[in-house]
Amino acid sequence: MTIKGVLFDLDDTLYDSTTFVDRARKEAIKMMIDAGLNATEEEAYNILQRIIKQKGSNYGHHFDDLVKAIEGQYNPKIVTMGIITYHNVKFALLRPYPDTIKTLIELKKMRLKLGVVTDGITVKQWEKLIRLGIADFFDEVVTSEEYGLGKPNIEFYRYALKKMNLKGEEVVYVGDRMDNDIIPASKVGMHTIRILRGKYKDMKGKCKYEVKSLREVVDIVKKLIEEGV
Amino acid sequence: MTIKGVLFDLDDTLYDSTTFVDRARKEAIKMMIDAGLNATEEEAYNILQRIIKQKGSNYGHHFDDLVKAIEGQYNPKIVTMGIITYHNVKFALLRPYPDTIKTLIELKKMRLKLGVVTDGITVKQWEKLIRLGIADFFDEVVTSEEYGLGKPNIEFYRYALKKMNLKGEEVVYVGDRMDNDIIPASKVGMHTIRILRGKYKDMKGKCKYEVKSLREVVDIVKKLIEEGV
Description:
Two copies of one chain form a homodimer.
Chain A: E1 5-8, H1 17-34, H2 41-55, H3 62-71, H4 76-93, H5 100-109, E2 113-118, H6 122-132, E3 140-143, H7 144-147, H8 154-164, E4 171-175, H9 178-187, E5 191-195, E6 209-211, H10 215-227
Parallel strand pairs in A: 1-2, 1-4, 2-3, 4-5, 5-6
């Protein structure tokens, strides 16, 4: 048995999701206030955070709910101003981590199969991969929407292995969260590397391999191959 | 009774919807073929036209259906490439007709209430108004999604009058289609002006006022006010 593939989580593993989404939301709020939203930036931000927590980040109507909460009624002009600004800023800021593309190139030179395992709406996650310029590195991309179940369900990880046509022991998995990434990937037999980045970097738990840069992934994979694990 | 307001249709009345959407679709097809779609541009374009005709232009999954029709299965990478290109090109080309803003300024100088009556998804129509830079001209914007019924239903036109707080006889309506704009607006008592533009410019039917430029709308409104209709 040797390593034949590497699977990556997407958000906060291959690009900075946490700060870029937050900055886009803050700019959107400023523009909504300019358009007439009757709140301070701080008030609106706190209400938005509460809505995101309640409804989840893939809920499609955060700004509608925000405006309803503050204005007492729907205001499509203010909502649309928020949506446009959010997307404009998000796309302006979206970029891979500085070590992402270098790492993917090194792994490709080692003839490894590469894949992405991500929670989210299929077209949205593909949009990120395409806009990040990294879509062509991946042999398979599996999303929770496509499979019908998301992280940390281990069936979702088994589905990813099936699409890669690999066994767990042949795969190295790289992700940022203990609960959603490292624990379930370990359960299906994958070798796991935790990247200490984004809002979950201080999440409790111990992973055998913990790295601060994706570049270290290359060395770990090489070591695992040499050891013939 | 005098003229107190002007209501406008949006698509192909205030901006060129027909050619800009068509160009965006053609560029999207080229990019999808680059990404692996197994068809010629002409084949793909014809299939897409058929899907749009069957499902309507506000159906949200034209590109999904196109890829399924050609490839026999869903391919999120190709679909997403199409969606991104479509939106990028659409926004790059989106602009008001050269006479739109001048006309709106003239009507505002006459202290008239202005509104938009449009079929479509509320946020999408507001997005067009905001990106066109003309949203602030309008006191009211009514969409078929908001009301629950669209053109040519005359209840939709009565709803627009109610939101404007005006009677039919106090309003001039400007639109490009006989069936969806001029006939129903006339039925609720509005004065109607047909703008001969876009893909419906040769549609059969006779409207009292027919114009080739929005600038002529200003003169007609002035004339109606002088006549004290």
